[in-house]
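Pilot study result, target chain (57 residues):
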Amino acid sequence: MRITPEKCIACGLYHTYSALLDCDDEGLVVLANTDAKECPIAPDDSDTITAVKSYPP
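Predicted structure:
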């Protein structure tokens, strides 16, 4: 999964689905507990998969 904060509309939707995702001080998407912009998603991590599919681009 790769996040693109510059496309984020700060809706907070992703955070309601997955603990891997968080928001910064401006409400933009970030990966929780890291400065990385990418991370792997386990095939059985349905919460994060739902967040990614629901995320407005």
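One observation from the pilot: The mean pLDDT is 87. A full batch analysis is planned for the follow-on phase.
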